[in-house]
Amino acid sequence: MSRLILSNLTKRYGALTVVDGVDLALEEGEFVSLLGPSGCGKTTTLRMIAGFVPPDGGSIALDGAIISAPDSVLPPERRGMSMIFQSYAIWPNMTVEENVAFGLKLRKLPNAEVRARTAEMLETVQMAHLAGRYPAELSGGQQQRVALARAIVIKPAVLLLDEPLSNLDANLREEMRFEIRRLHNAFRITTVYVTHDQAEAMATSDRIAVMHAGRVEQIDAPHLLYARPRTRFVAGFIGRTNLIEGNVANDIFAADGFSLPASSMAGQALPPGPTLVSVRPQSIGLHRGVPDAPSGHPVMQGTILERTYLGESWDYVVSPAESGLRLRVAAPPLDVHDVGGAVWLALDPRQLAVVQ
Amino acid sequence: MALWIALALALAFLVAFPLIKLMIASVETRDGAFTLNNYATAYGRARYLEALFNSLKLGALSAAIATLIAVPMAWAVSRTDMPGKGFCWAMVMAAFVLPPYLGAIGWILLAGPNSGFLNVLWRAVTGAEDPIVNIYTFSGLATVIALHSFPLVFLFVKSALDLISSEMEDAANILGAGTFATMRRVTLPLAGPAILGGFIIVFLETIALFGTPAIIGIPARINVVTTQLWQFFEHPVRMEVAAAYAMPLLLITVAMIGAQKLLLARKGFVSQTGKGGERREIKLGAWRWVMFAWCAGVGLFAVMLPVMVLVQASFAKAWGRGLSVDNFTFRNYYHLLFEHDMALTSVWNTIWFSAAAATIALIIALLVAYMVVRKLSRFADALGFLAMAPFVIPGIIMAIGFYAAYASPPFAMYGTAALIILAFAARFLPIAFANASAAMRAVHPEMEEAVRILGGGRMTAIRFVTAPLVKRALLGGWLIVFIVATRELSAAVFLVGPRTRTMSVLLYDLSEAGNFEVLAAFGGILLVITMVFVAVGMKLAGRDFMLRRS
Amino acid sequence: MLISRRTIAALAAALPFAARAQDLPAHERTLHEAARREGELTWYSGQYSAEHSETVGRAFTARFPGVRCNVVRSTSQVAFQRLSQDMRAGAAQCDVFSSTDFGHYSLLKRENRLLQYRPENDAGLFPDLRRADPDGYYHTSFMGLYLMAHNTRRVPEADAPKKWTDALDPKYRNQIAVGHPGFSGAIGIWAVQMRKMYGWDYFTRLERNRPMIGRSSLDPVTALNAGERGIGLAVPSSSTSLSISRGNPLKLIYPEEGVLATISPSAIPRNAPHPNAAKLFMEFTTSRYLSDAIRPMFGDPIHPDTAPAEGMRAVSEIRLISPTQAEAESGVPEVRELWRDTFGV
User: Fold this and answer.
1) Which residues of B touch C2 (CB under 8 A)?
2) Which overall architecture, per CATH, does domain B40-270+279-325 show?
């Protein structure tokens, strides 16, 4: 049975529907991210899970029991969850140790146990040597570790994280990303993680729910989300992509400048009619001469229109000959082409994703 | 350069010299020889020590009661969905502007053990023999003081609570703490420094308070430091002994402020603003009415009941006879307005002394704040420190310092209006400074730099950009100083001359004459005047100008 | 504007008294001329109650137009404290000093703080009140009678004390109100007199009855009016009678041992800023016009031409007690300290 189930969850503020019929099920021990641009409803969804915001429709069930419905909301303090806030909300009037022990004390555990578990937890997040410090004396990353320790030490039924890394600088963010995943691997706490940063979501999550305008667009494992986006929004939001319009007829997908067997893309037959295809810049081969492509892999000649060096790769804009398309193509740093230079493009149908 | 020297001189005159003079006087004989006899005299009697001890006890008790009253109010107003917040504000504001000695007289009428209205009512309803409240007790005195000083705690705590992001509370909620557990274990401790600060302020105000202990403390047979200081001014005037006797008060004050700093040094309460500082009102459900009842109760006891009995007494022939048509008269007001030699003069004195003091304080404060905020001189911070120093000097000590420094020749300012105005200006300089520097900080220096890059001088920038931007805030600051000056008693009582008596001093004199009806009528006049100025302030400087904390 | 309105009011109120210059005796006329040039005087008044003092001040200005009287009314000890503070600061602010603690005057005279001036009108006072100081540094301006009173609702006639010592009866616990010798001059004199008659034991026993302590000798009257207390000790007959006339359920008690009389003078400080106005005021206080002014408010006349107020016993019918001036001068500071030790305030 799933641990946490959101069914048709809806929240309106006046005329504005900020969460619009969200369905989501988390398995025991699963780490799911809610990913989306600001205003997509992900934080509101999280706060509904926490119990701070009552839903206007639908329900939330924890271990089979309804904990949120429009008429009855179990207050946050009785959900057995814990949460990490954007501001960390580390209480500045308590030491690191007192912060971490707070939830345990509320559970009226014996003092010895509180002390032991707190110490163990601080050890785990590598904060044991700072147990007596006050939060004002800690760096941002250290505060973050305290927040993690405080949330995890109570062994919550569900751990909620609200953009926990958004206030850290880039290096620290990367470090903490792995720290969060490491802790998850260690404790296997069912986790909902809200972020607008796809790299963060990719690095930490078992599955990602991409949200847009209050709806979940797609839920999938991170690599599938990247390779098999199912909607135009997801394709555009996750990584960079080329969206190519075409038409399917007689199992042939025909676009401006190339065509290929439709079933070779999706692994199945596609219904005829206009079809949109997403292809990642990394998935397009860029060659100086005519590439030696397997049959069914379309090959096109083209001209470099623009180029930008991004550090890890080149970003070329290529216009295929006899076509109105403009394709973004990524190439390694030493594959240098001048603007106006002639190149060859090779497409692998398996890397093309049909989107709605 | 010339400006800062002028400011330094002004501050030395207003703050440093009186204090230094006081310290010197405490170790000098009248002829100027060094002696420690003053201290021996000041602490040579058990009664004097007991007064000191009483003051400390009274300060602690009043501060504790005030904190107990104010903290739930501040929490309810700042963080919950309690109804009637506007009413609550009004009550806090009214309690703040009501002069403490007037409240004390109101409470004598309310809670005199035999004749107080509350006790008469209590006996009538229950048939009990004993009074329900007795104002002439230590706890009665402390409660009356607390009922008029709790707004200080309220202001401190509310503004601290306003800064706490709701996530701090959410974090406790999600870990399993309910609304009240969260308030108790997270929200209030977060406001801890403010609560402590408010407690200390009330403590210091209480031990420096003169009027209420004189009016209630004597019948209750409680001697405190201030009434004892007053005794040292009996013939022969032993100002040196008073100076020596005042020293511990000063030390206690400095020590408490120091202790507070030390206590809070490590904990970083700055971060309580947090990021993502969203604030939501806590839904209290039925409890919101309980909180409202608490606030309304405080308003009832701090403001409504005392004012009601004062108004009744002011229109009564004999207040003990209660409400009846044949007991009603305008005679008390008529007497004050048309017959009394000093009443109107004192009204006029009060208004113009307070106005002059507010103006002087604000001008000095503004200039110092400008120098401090814009870092114009490396001495600016020292000036800022001097401007804030009177904050920790009890008013009555300030007055004795002024008496010691300026009463005798060569200054010979005793009894002059100038001396009182300067004493008021010095006493309330910190309020003016806090207001002025908050206003200054709100004006980004780039606003002025933009003028200067276009070719305007600093003065042009101040005149056309800075001044208009801070005008409203300064007006608010001026009015606060003005209003607190109109009710100031302890600084005035040692410095007034026969023609320079203020309303507060005249009220004190009237309270000696045992005629509560005339006294109440004069209090009524004082209240009307204060209300007019508060109303003007709200109109010109915004509804919350008195309570904005800077 | 404020001043003129008050002046008009004062004039209107006192019109019947108004005297034209030619009606004044020659010595007053001369002084009046000189005083007019000074324009005003400041009177530190601890003798008469606030209401009486204001009335006296207005009556003075009405009789001597052009000379304002600034009334600074307080308890006698506070008035003396102000005067001491003035002297300490070297400030000259007070023109006439009036205190019920007549010990103040021998002290001030010895310290050479007073101006020598004997008002001509002094000769017209009751014979016993004339020439208060043989050297003419101070002159009688006030006679106060201090006795007991009870609130007839709280303490019925039959239960009321008859003698000063009756107040020590434990049955009056929590019933008594009294002023404070640290503030009121008359209470200081009274305490000296009680100590003289019964020793300080009188007060240690009084303390056991938990009296309510006010500041002024008038405070007990207020407490009686309100019903806060049942018995007032050493209350002034004038203010108590005024209170009775206003309908308060009070009754005077003439103690069997005698009524305390404080026959107290006024004096002009040597450095008075308005000496002529001060002298004129001294003439006024020793004339019948002062006694006339206070009579309607039950003040005790000190001039034989003024009859006692309606219903008041004539002084000649009462047994009076009082300490000597020497006893007062040394005794009041002593009893003040003793009082504070005994009562704590």
Assistant:
1) 344-345, 348
2) Orthogonal Bundle (1.10)
A81 reaches B (C-beta below 8 A): yes
Helix B343-373 with B380-388: angle, nearest 10 deg: 150
Residues 6+ apart with CB under 8 A from B144: B100, B103, B104, B107, B135, B212, B216
Domains along chain A with CATH numbers? 4-229 (3.40.50.300), 240-355 (2.40.50.140)
Q: Can you name the CATH fold of B1-33+332-550? A: MetI-like fold (1.10.3720)
Q: How far is C84 from chain B (nearest CA, A)?
A: 6
Predicted ipTM beyond 0.90: no
CA B70/CA C179 separation, integer angstroms: 37
The pLDDT value recorded for residue A192 is: 96
Residue B265 at interface with chain A, using a CB cutoff of 8 Å? no
pLDDT-above-90 percentage for chain B: 32
Number of Cβ within 10 Å of residue A21's Cβ equals 15
Q: Which domains does chain C have, with CATH numbers?
A: 2-142+264-305 (3.40.190.10), 144-261+319-343 (3.40.190.10)
Which of A89, A94, A154 is opposite residue B167, by nearest beta carbon? A89
Length of chain B: 550
Running DSSP on this structure, what letter comes out for residue B270? G
Q: Name the residue among C77, C78, C93 with its Cβ closest to that of B415.
A: C93
Q: Does B272 touch chain A (CB under 8 A)?
A: yes
How far is A296 from A344, CA to CA, in rounded Å?
Answer: 16
Residue-by-residue DSSP string for A335-346: ----TT-EEEEE
A46 and B CB contact within 8 Å? no
Task: Enumerate helices (H) and strands (E) in chain B, giving the number of each.
Answer: 28, 0
Residue range(s) in chain B whose domain bears CATH number 1.10.3720.10: 1-33+332-550, 40-270+279-325
Q: Are C62 and C10 in contact (CB under 8 A)?
A: yes
Residue position matching structure tokens 């003005």: B482
Which of helix, strand or coil describes residue B452?
helix
* Pairing state between β C40-45 and C96-98: parallel
Q: Which of B317, B510, B512 sits opposite C183 (nearest CB)?
A: B512
| B270 touching chain A per CB within 8 A | yes
**Count of helix runs (H) and strand runs (E) in chain A:** 9, 20
pTM value is: 0.84
Angstroms from C127 CA to nearest CA on chain B? 31
Query: Each residue of C149-161: pLDDT tens digit?
Result: 999 999 999 999 9
Each residue's pLDDT tens digit, A101-137? 999 988 889 999 999 999 999 999 999 999 999 888 8
- Pick from A144, A128, A138: which is nearest to A176 by CA? A144
Nearest 10 degrees: CA dihedral of B19, B23, B28, B29? 60
Q: Are B35 and B29 in contact (CB under 8 A)?
A: yes
Q: What is the pLDDT of residue B543?
A: 66
How would you write the pLDDT of chain C (345 residues) with one tens digit per residue? Answer: 344 444 444 444 444 445 555 578 999 999 999 999 999 999 999 999 888 898 999 999 999 999 999 998 888 998 998 898 888 888 889 999 999 998 899 999 999 999 999 999 999 999 889 999 999 999 999 999 999 999 999 999 999 999 999 999 999 999 999 999 999 999 999 999 999 999 999 999 999 999 999 999 999 998 998 888 999 999 999 999 988 888 888 999 999 999 999 999 999 999 999 999 999 999 999 999 999 999 988 998 999 998 888 778 888 888 999 999 899 989 999 999 999 999 988
Contacts of C229 in chain B (CB under 8 A): 114
Contact yes or no for B514 and C44 at CB 8 A: no
Distance from CA of C116 to the nearest CA of B (A): 22
